[in-house]
Every structure is written in structure tokens, then in C-alpha cells.
Amino acid sequence: MESKINRYSKQLILINSLFIILWLVVSVFPFIWTFWGSFKVKADFFSRADWMFAVTGVNTLIETGDTSTVKAYVESWTEGEFWKATMNTIIITVSVVTISLFLGTLGAYALSRSTYKYTFWILIAALIFRAMPHITLVSGYLFPFFQLNVWGILPTTIIVLVAINQPFTLWLLYSFFKTVPKELDESALIDGCSYFQAFRYVIMPVMWPGVVTAGLFSMMLAYNDFTVTSLLLNQQNYTMVPKINAYLGTIEHSGNYMWAVSSVVSATAPLFMIIMFFQRQLISGLTAGAVKG
Amino acid sequence: MPHKTFFWFFFPSGLAMVLFIGLPIISSFFQSLHIEPEQILMEVEKCDPFGCKTETKVDIEATTKLQEEQPLGRFNGLGTYGDRNHLAFDQIKEAWNNSSSMSNFIDILLNLPFYKALLFTLTFCFAVTPPVVILGFIVALSINTLTKSLKGPTIFGVILPMIVTPLIGSLVLFWMIDAKGILGATIQYLFDDPNLSLKSSSQLTWITLIIYGIWHNTPFAFVVFYAALQTVPQDPIEAAIIDGASRYDRVRHIVIPHLYPVATFIILICLMDNFRVLEPIIGFAAEGVAQSLSWMIYNDLRSENKMLFGSAGATSMLTIIGVAFLLTPVLIRTWKEFRTER
Q1: CA distance to partner chain A, nearest, from residue B96 (Å)
Q2: Which of A6, A13, B317, B339 is most buried (most C-beta within 10 Å)?
């Protein structure tokens, strides 16, 4: 297939490689820089004198006796109570993923197998719901939640995140279930299964690729959320992202910047590792809505 | 599937969406019709050795009582929508009558909080989207030419900016662009101006935010384009090669037309997502010069002792109207897709 003319010329390969390397640097370097800088003291990472201090760690050497230090990590995890934020994030993420997949698979399966017209309207409604900015929803939650006295606790946030996540999960799983042949569960129905049994014994064993993709997106939403968690949780129940924002401090009192830097690394590292394993699912999920055939 | 079975399968998911997406919008609207109760003032006579004075003081007891009776405040109709912090009809009318020239009027208009925020939100949306589409396409084309073993790690590196949450992403960039960070210091050195920094002018802050937006959104465009490139039909390309078309001609006349629908999808999603821009403003600590609609709502809700539910509700409603405009083309597109499927 590769004919001679389709081979890449040397110049093209060179320009192409340079461009990709440049783009990789733009994408990746900020994270490497932050990772490296998180082991320095503030006087180095935000050096007024010379940014090279962040590389060599001159002040770190003066302050701690070594060119790199884990002081910021130790302090933020213990004194800054980042361990608590991590626990909260884990609780919220695991619950949100489990519940939204449970609701989402059932709902999306029904949507993909029903032939009535209302499924179309439900999907359109889900699309509209997905487009709602989260902050406008939060502004609607706060008042009723204060009145019902459920503001600030983890379960409320979990339910809210599950609901916010439903439209996308439904769409993703709907397009996945559409690719599962109808004959599979229809034959089970003919053999006398109920719809639920058909779902349980025929569809469940084959739905895992779609579920993993949907789960990945639910996880990213819950793990990364700032708008909902920062306004619906009280300070003690903060998850990682609002916690990092709290370290930055406000105009009234200065925060601890190096805590924020090290916490950014602590929060980002697990996410990157998960994405490394599930890169293919992430890409297939992102393109599910865009590319068809 | 019978209606009843469908209902039970869909019920939990539907209930969650109605309760926590549908109702909050209605609740937001309801809040926007109310305004916080005014503080009840009382006159107190205060006497000291130098004589007696009457002072006006807030009657805390009565105010608290009123707040308990009417937690949402008093009914205000559409008043909040027209006040100075939202559509500001009175101020616009006044500016229209008093301003000396058109540019003067526009100046006054864009200093009103709502219009200022709207201007930033729209500028952000429309400045970020075109570069995102173009860069995403170019990156997808280049990565597509790599050998298979290199593709995986390269794609992983390229999608990192999209994976991290906008707050963390903007912080990571902010720490580099900060006057004391590596990029900020380098820029100062290059322009030989020790006072040059992100904070020095509002234009620079806006540009920084837009650059962040491009950095964050390009991976999404790249991923979608990359997947679409795999579906470009090979036959016309081969035919074009035989006919002697150059590489540029092949991209221009075969690949790009094939990707048009995908590009519109990216543009629409990008516009919609960036319309809700909030976290970058917080991450870059740019509240002073760049406010978005979402930030206005966030700001109303942030203060712990006095949340402005009415104001936040009104801004939310206006934001939703904005989203509705951007959403219409997406809905039409989905509608057409469904039509062709059936």
C-alpha cells in the first residue's frame, strides 16, 4: 500500500519531529517543573533572585542542609491534614463511580432497547442537562440544602456528583449498548428470561469494556471536581482540590504556598498513573460522541 | 421493551437527574425572584457624660426573627435582574442619555459588572476555540505519522493538560508565569523590563488566561481529530496519489472535508465548556481584572455569613440563557443524527 510517493520526505520528518517534541515540552514540562520544585523551599521555587535556584536548590541547601527536601510533603500531609482530604476524595470517588455506574447501566440499557419515541426526548433532555454549568446548579442547591440541614456532609456531595454525572454516563453507555447486538438479549427473552434476567445474565458479562470507559469518566469528574466540592462541603470535609485552593490562602491571611505545590503533586500523581493504564478507554470514550463510522 | 419495564430500569437514573439537575434550576429561578431582607434599623439614645445622642443601629433581634420567618427574603419579582449588578437597565439608560459619544457609552457599559463579565466570558470562548481546533488538527496530523511504538507514550504526554482539573492546571502554569517563576523571569529578561508581569495589566492577564485555555483544551481537539483521522477512507487518497496530488493537496481536498463534521462538534463542545470558565480565574488569582459569569455566581455564594442567593440565582438564569444559545446548534445536530438513524 505504501507507494513510493507516500513516503515522507526527510524535511517533513524533521519538521514533524521538531513540532511534536516542542508540543510535548509544552504539555509535559509544567508538570515536571512542579514535581521538581515541590522538593525545594519557597525561596527557591519562587526565587526573586534567579529562577535557576529552583533547579539547583541553593536556599534549600541553606535552610535544610540538603538540595532537596520532603518537608512540604510531610507538613501538608500531617499539619495541613491533607491525609483527611485524600480520604474524603477516595470515599467520594469510589462511591460516585459505583453508584453512577449502577444507575447508568440500567438506564442506558433501557434507553438502548426501547423503541418508543420518548427515549429520544430523554436523551435530548440529558444533553441539555449536561450543558448546564455546574455553578448554576450549585446556586440552586445551597438554599434548600441549608434548610434541610444536609449541607457540608459527604453523602450530599456524593449524590449531587452522581446526578451531575448521569447525563454523560447515560450517553456514553447508550452508544455502547447500541453496539451490543440486540439478538443476544432477544434470544434470552424468547427462552423465557425476564428483562432483568436478560440484563443480568446476558448483557452484564459483555458490558465491561463500556463500563470501564464510563467508570473512568465518572472517576475523573469526582476526583477533579472543584465547583461542587468547594461550595457544598464544609472545611473539615474538603476533598483534595478545594483543600489545595484553601492552602493558597486568601487576601486576609497568607497561605502556605509550598503545601499547595506538594499537594498538587500528591493529587496529580495517582491520576496520571490511572490514565496511563486506561489511556485507550479514555480516548474511546472521548470520541464516542464525535466519530461515527 | 414495555413501558413498565422501561420505567423501572430508568427510574433511579431519571430520579437523580430530575431531583438534582431539574429542580435546582427551578429553585435557582425561584431564588432569583427574592431578595435578602433588609436589616431592621432602630434608633437608640446613647448617653454619656458629654450629652445624649440618637444613633441608628441594626436591630439584630428583629432582623434574625425576620430572617427566620422568611429565610429566602422578600419577594422582589424580576427586580434583581434589572439591578446594577445584573442587566442594569437604569444605569444603561442614564449612560445613554448622558454620555458624550458612543465610545464613552460603551466604556460605561463595559464597566457594569454583568457586562464586564459577559465580555470576558465571550472573549475567552471565542479567542480560545479557533486556535484549539487548528492546533489540535496539526498535532493529530503529526502524531498520526509516528511509528506505532512511539504513538502510545506521545499521546499520553500530549493529553496530560486535559486530564488535570482546571484549577490544578492553571496553578501549575501560574507558578511558572509568576514574576518569580521560570517563565515570568525569562520574559522579564527578554523584554528587559523588571516590572513586567502577568499582573501588570489587564490585557496581559487576559492573554495569559487565553493561553491557558488553549493549553487545556487542545488535547481534547487532538484526541477527537486523531480518532477521526483513523476513519479517513484510503481509496480516494490512493487515487489522489496516482493522479499526482501532493501531500498538501491530499490533506486539503480529502482529509479536511472528511473532518468537517468532527470540527463542528469540537467547536460546539469547546464553546460550551469554555462558557463556564471559572477555575482558571481562581487559579491565576485574576479576579481583579477578569470576571466571568460563573465567577460572579461563585463570588455571591462564597461568603459564609451572607450568601446572596437572589443575585446568584439571577446570574445563573442569565448564564443558562447564554448556554441555551450555544446549545441550540448541538441539539439540531443531534436531532438530525437521530433522524438519519431511524
Answers
A1: 31
A2: B317
Burial of A146 (0-12, 13-18, 19+ CB in 10 A): middle
Contact B167, B294 (CB under 8 A): no
Q: Which of B138, B172, B317 shows the shortest C-beta gap to A264?
A: B172
Residues B244-285: tens digit of each pLDDT: 888 888 888 888 888 888 888 889 888 988 998 999 998 888
The tens digit of pLDDT for each residue in A221-246 reads: 999 999 999 888 888 889 999 988 88
CATH class, range A76-288: mainly alpha
Q: Is A35 on the interface with B (CB under 8 A)?
A: no
3 state DSSP class of B36: coil
pLDDT per position as a tens digit, B163-201: 899 999 999 998 888 767 777 777 777 877 777 777 677
Q: Which residues, listed in sequence order, are joined to residue A249 by a DSSP beta bridge?
A: A254
The answer to whether the beta carbons of residues B266 and B132 sit under 8 Å apart is yes
For domain B113-341, say whether CATH 1.10.3720.10 is its number.
yes
Out of B175, B241, B278, name the one closest to residue A6 (CB). B241
- For A162, the closest of B16, B142, B145 (CB atoms) is B16
Residues of chain A with CATH 1.10.3720.10: 76-288
**Rounded CA separation A177/B28 (Å):** 35
Size of interface A-B (CB pairs under 8 A): 279
- Assess A48–B contact: CB distance below 8 Å, yes or no: yes
Chain A neighbors of B9, CB-CB under 8 A: 106-107, 109-110, 195, 199
Average pLDDT over residues B228-253: 85
State how far residue A50 is from chain B, nearest Cα, in angstroms: 8
Q: Kindly list the residues from chain A whose CB atom is less than 8 angstroms away from the CB atom of residue B215.
A: 26-27
Burial of B79 (0-12, 13-18, 19+ CB in 10 A): middle
pLDDT in tens, B74-119: 787 788 888 888 888 888 888 888 878 888 888 888 888 899 999 9
Domain residue spans in chain B? Answer: 36-75, 77-105, 113-341
ipTM of the complex: 0.87
